Amino acid sequence: MDVQHLRRALGRFTTGVTIISCLDRDGSYVGLTANSFNALSLSPPLVLWSLRESSSSLAAFMAADRFAVNVLAESQVELSRRFASQGDAKFAEGAWTVGEHGAPVLAGCAAVFECETATRQQAGDHCLFIGQVLGCTESAVQPLVYQAGHYRLLGEIL
């Protein structure tokens, strides 16, 4: 299988854009941009996301009992870029607080899912995280989406 061809084909699938966040063992905020987020089950309420095994954030998420999935609004595209980089002080931008269930949550998102880690599983070159949703919020703002290597905006079908 040609990996670049596979990557292009997978990129044709439009996804939402999230910042997944947790607290590390020292209580510091850790976060990254991910579009590998999906709903898994309504009963019990489960979601999943995946992280490359080579990620510098993997150890923090492996050790964390809780994480938050912050579904970005289209107005938060710069935060998405910031959290996709390797730079320091990612949390210096945005209105971040520790949520009710112990993970960093971002104000102004289309939705936020606060989760307890249910399972972790290695799959290929990624680690799958399945979380039980402990609480969620939503807002009537347009979500940021990603497709074919570019950020996109949603439009209404008339």
Could you please describe the fold and organization of this structure?
It contains 3 helices and 12 strands, in the order αβββββαβαββββββ. The chain has 158 residues and is mainly β. Helices cover 15% and strands 45% of the residues. The strands form 3 sheets. The chain has a 7-stranded antiparallel sheet. A 3-stranded antiparallel sheet has the order 1-11-12, with no helix packed on it. The protein has a two-stranded antiparallel sheet with strand order 7-8. It starts with a helix and ends in a 6-residue tail after the last strand. It has one domain (3-148): Roll (Pnp Oxidase, Chain A).
Got a strand count?
12
Counting copies of identical and different chains, the oligomeric state is: single chain
Weakly predicted, low-confidence segments: none
Q: Whole-number radius of gyration?
A: 15 Å
- The CATH architecture classification is Roll
Major β-sheet profile = 7 strands, antiparallel
Mean pLDDT: 95
Tell me the number of helical segments per DSSP (H or I, 4 or more residues long): 3
Can you describe this structure in just a few lines?
The protein is mainly beta. It is built from three helices and twelve strands; from the N terminus they run H-E-E-E-E-E-H-E-H-E-E-E-E-E-E. The strands form three sheets. The chain has a seven-stranded antiparallel beta sheet.
Please give a handful of descriptors for the protein shown.
single chain, 158 residues, mainly beta, Pnp Oxidase, Chain A, 3-stranded antiparallel beta sheet, 3 helices, 45% strand, globular
